[in-house]
Amino acid sequence: MIEVEPGRFEEMVASGLDGLPEELGRLMSNVAVTVEHRAGPPGLLGLYEGVPLTSRTTGYAAVLPDRITIYRKAICAICQSEQEVADQVRRTVIHEIAHHFGIDDRRLRELGW
């Protein structure tokens, strides 16, 4: 386990988002990415809550943004170095954004994520 300061961890999350292909970032719609510094639900490194883009219909309007939460303590608990944390943050951000695009865990496993 390694402890990464909250500000540094948030920079890692921002870097993970900045590393997305530009065209993918443009397709993201009505989603907020946040960092939770307290322990999250057991076994979760990140969580997507919302209506995936593939499930939105013409009736999708005037709703709160989808939310992607990245759990700092959970990620730090499984890593041994700051580089491992940065790598895991990147994987977690991509994983949760995939859910925003309607890709489920089964398909992510098939794709090697």
From TrEMBL:
Pfam families: Zincin_1. Transmembrane segments: none annotated. InterPro entries: Zincin_1 (IPR010428), Zincin_1_sf (IPR038555). It comes from the Bacteria. Gene3D superfamilies: 3.30.2010.20. This is Metallopeptidase family protein. It comes from Trebonia kvetii. The lineage of its organism: Bacteria, Bacillati, Actinomycetota, Actinomycetes, Streptosporangiales.
